[in-house]
Design goal:
single chain; 183 residues; alpha+beta; six-stranded antiparallel β-sheet; two-stranded antiparallel sheet; 3 helices; 8 strands; disordered C terminus
């Protein structure tokens, strides 16, 4: 153990101690340095051997989520719900466990083109060229009744953005729902 006496202002005199004692600070510092070194080596090995996001079968990372923004001219007012919707886009949700080939075949059967997706929840944004909102609604009902793997099929709705005027809407802002006009 090391001892010392303090003599003001700042000078240490008359110290004594045993450098071989287990209370020795040099030994504690060496042990601490050794533990830190082992931890660093373990972390390097862990991160070096763990597969990273960039490492996959292909040379580019796989995206799991991507959605297309609608063109303003493709946004229409759904008179039934009062919501803005994309006239030729249907959102299709497949049950978990549905394989990619099945989803692709169902989308192909409606002449759809995938323009967006969230693969983590099997949600696909599908454009139906030449379709109108009425076609999309009918197609959604048909998909749900025809395919057990389709859990949801609905027009893509949007919020915000610029105002969409209906035949009866002459005010500066569109209500969220037709019943909101009466409130």
């Amino acid at each position: 153990m090391v001892r010392g006496e303090d003599h003001p202002p700042t000078h240490l005199s008359d110290w004594s101690g045993d450098l071989k004692s287990y209370f020795n600070m040099k030994k504690i510092i060496l042990i601490s340095s050794g533990v830190v070194s082992v931890l660093i080596v373990v972390l390097i090995i862990y991160f070096y051997t763990s597969p990273s996001f960039e490492e996959s079968d292909s040379s580019t990372p796989v995206e799991t989520k991507k959605f297309a923004l609608p063109k303003p001219e493709d946004i229409v007012l759904d008179e039934d719900s009062g919501l803005k919707a994309v006239k030729d886009v249907i959102m299709i949700g497949f049950s978990s466990g549905t394989d990619q080939a099945t989803m692709d075949n169902i989308i192909k059967s409606i002449n759809g083109e995938v323009i967006g997706y969230d693969k983590s929840v099997n949600l696909y944004q599908v454009k139906i060229p030449g379709a109108n909102l009425k076609d999309i609604k009918s197609l959604g009902t048909s998909l749900i009744s025809k395919y057990r793997k389709v859990e949801m099929a609905t027009p893509q709705t949007v919020s915000g953005g610029r105002k969409i005027e209906s035949k009866t809407d002459t005010e500066d802002s569109m209500p969220a729902h037709p019943k909101a006009q009466n409130d």
